[in-house]
């Protein structure tokens, strides 16, 4: 079992997740406008060059980890819930106010073992989690309703 200490973000509209299930290896896009998510993306991207924060390629230096966080996409949010580990593959952070358009790649499923709120971040959570083996992915992915797909234009 693999432990992570990473950021936790959760969707605020549960109907979004019912229409657009998240699947490992299928990229999707989100727009971060809430203060907690602006904090999250700024911190996840802080060690990357400005070009990577402006929609350019995100390249990791030797020994550097890619920008990764947890997207808790199922409600209600609680310890023991299943969430998705996502890698930021492209981001455009608006310099004026920190809003961001992010393109994410789901890379694994995790079980939220312990969660705590970080003070002063407008309800941004940290989570300690266990990563599920890849073989469990098909059981954790819900089928998409007919005719629904997720996407993002760049």
Task: Give a short summary of the structure.
By secondary structure, the chain is an alpha+beta fold.
Give me the secondary-structure topology.
Layout (H helix, E strand, L loop, with lengths): L2 E8 L3 H6 L8 E5 L2 H10 L5 H4 L14 E5 L9 E12 L6 E18 L7 E7 L5 H4 L14
Parallel strand pairs: 1-3
Antiparallel strand pairs: 1-6, 2-5, 3-4, 4-5, 5-6
What does this 3D model show about the protein?
- The chain has 154 residues and is an alpha+beta fold.
- The chain contains 4 helices and 6 strands; from the N terminus they run E-H-E-H-H-E-E-E-E-H.
- A hairpin with a 6-residue loop joins strand 4 and strand 5.
- The termini are far apart.
Low-confidence stretches: 11-18, 143-154
Succession of helices and strands: EHEHHEEEEH
Instruction: Give the overall shape.
Output: globular
The amount of beta strand, in percent, is 35-45%
Radius of gyration: 15 Å
Number of helices: 4
Spatial order of the strands in the main sheet?
Answer: 1-3-4-5-6
Q: How many strand segments?
A: 6
Indicate the structural class: alpha+beta
Number of domains: 1
CATH class: Mainly Beta
The CATH fourth-level homologous superfamily = LON domain-like
Compute the average pLDDT. Answer: 80
Query: How many strands, which pairing sense, and closed or not: the largest β-sheet?
Result: 5 strands, mixed, barrel
Distance between the termini: 36 Å
Q: What is the CATH topology assignment?
A: Archaeosine Trna-guanine Transglycosylase, Chain: A, domain 4
């Amino acid at each position: 079992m693999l432990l992570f200490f990473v950021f936790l973000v959760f969707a605020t509209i549960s109907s979004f997740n019912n229409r657009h299930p998240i699947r490992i290896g299928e990229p999707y896009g989100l727009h971060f406008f809430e203060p907690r998510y602006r904090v999250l993306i700024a911190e996840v991207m802080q060690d990357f060059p400005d070009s990577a924060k402006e929609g350019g390629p995100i390249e990791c230096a030797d020994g550097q980890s890619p920008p990764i966080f947890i997207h808790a996409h199922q409600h209600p949010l609680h310890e023991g819930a299943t969430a998705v580990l996502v890698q930021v593959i492209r981001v455009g952070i608006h310099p004026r106010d920190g809003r961001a358009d992010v393109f994410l790649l789901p890379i694994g499923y995790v079980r939220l073992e312990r969660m705590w709120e970080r003070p002063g971040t407008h309800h941004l959570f940290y989570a300690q989690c266990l990563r599920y083996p890849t073989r469990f992915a098909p059981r954790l992915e819900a089928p998409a309703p007919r005719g629904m797909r997720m996407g993002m234009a760049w």
